[in-house]
Structures are given as structure tokens and as C-alpha cells.
Amino acid sequence: xxxxxxxxxxxxxxxxxxxxxxxxxxxxxxxxxxxxxxxxxxxxxxxxxxxxxxxxxxxxxxxxxxxxxxxxxxxxxxxxxxxxxxxxxxxxxxxxxxxxxxxxxxxxxxxxxxxxxxxxxxxxxxxxxxxxxxxxxxxxxxxxxxxxxxxxxxxxxxxxxxxxxxxxxxxxxxxxxx
Length: 178
What we know:
Blueprint lengths: L2 E2 L4 E4 L5 E4 L23 E2 L2 E8 L7 E4 L7 E4 L2 H21 L4 E2 L4 H5 L8 E7 L17 H13 L4 H10 L3
Antiparallel strand pairs: 1-8, 2-3, 2-4, 5-6, 5-9, 6-7
């Protein structure tokens, strides 16, 4: 199974080719060893990630069910078809964010024909959801915050105890499961 490497973005060059490239700047961790892409690469037009979905048609007493075959365990439902598809897009975004936060790779979108030919989805209606890569942008950004000095000293002490920078520790706290 093809995967999209940690913190990578989909691009298309003028020749219509697609690929995955790493952003020039990362969170405090730095680039993943063996990653693709180079800093200073020619700017490329980014395109949405298009994931196929399989829709189980609902009825008067049942909801529409939607599975995202490329994202194991990612599914949703809705009382209407439009609601089910919107919920599938939200579920896929949440799945991708959680996977990236854990440091794992995300699967690359498969071709719609691959899902159509999968016997697990025989009789299901197929569609596509789009995930905007800008929603997953991990480009570091400078921020200014105002904290009481005593809180800042506590934050710095905790960051040092964890072997992290202040910025890295704040990011760690934001991503921690509570």
C-alpha cells in the first residue's frame, strides 16, 4: 500500500504529474530521515487529496453509511446523503490529523476503480471526498503570546525537564491526549 509520508503535501507540476513533497519548514522535530522533496524546490500548484468513499444507501428507518476505504476504521453516517458525505469528509480530516499527530504515515488516495473492483463494496454507491492540504499545514509560524513571568518560568522548567524547547513543549502539550 502506498503511503503519504509524515507531514507531506500533494503537488502537481505543469506536466500534470503528481507527487508528495515535504514542506520546507517543519515543527520542532525537523525533517524525517529519508524524506522526499528539497528545500528550495520550485513552487508547485497544490491540489486537494481526493479519497474515494463507499456509501451504503439508507432508507426511511436507517441512516446513510459512508466508509473511507483508504483510511482504516474511518466511517460516518448521516440521515441524508449530503449529511453523510459531509460527515465523511469531517471524519477523514480528523482521522488524518490524528494519524499525523501520532507520527504515522497516511495512506495515499487510491483510484476510484480500485474501490469499485473491491468485493467488500459490491453494491455500494461510490463517491469522492476532498481534503484540502492547507487544513493540514504544519509550516511553523512565529507567534507572540503574553504570559505572566511566573507561568513562563514554570513552562521553561517543564520544557527543559522534557528535553524540549519552549515552542516544542507547547506543541507537545497541544497534541497530548488528556
